[in-house]
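Example (one chain per record):
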Amino acid sequence: MSQSFSSDLNNRLQWSLFSLRLGVFIVMLMWTLDKFVNPGHSARILEAFYGFSGSTDIMAYVSGGLQLLLVLAFMAGIKKRITYGLIFIMHGASTLLAYALYIDGFNNLLFFAAWPMWAACFALYLLRDQDVKFIIK
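Predicted structure:
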């Protein structure tokens, strides 16, 4: 393999991983901001998908604050083994816990978008050492 081919492949890999990280970040950021903008929505999701009732606005704000720290650290590439791993686990849990919606798939098509995003999270975790574009060292 020539030096220029290897360099080009590495450059394309870095841009590809950055685009995956940016895409996952945008979705996770919107889910996080939703906890601040509409904390009642967060309570309804906790009850519907996780069986947890009695959530308060304060709980939504606290979990939103913690999640915001995580997604910002994820986007910045800080402690990648931990942050990428937590993002993968969080998104995986939400994807799998929506299992009932997949049974009636044609009335819940948007939920299927969770699967390629979960795959992107997995790829980012596996290739975290090569994901170096625009990270904080």
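Caption: The chain has a mean pLDDT of 95.
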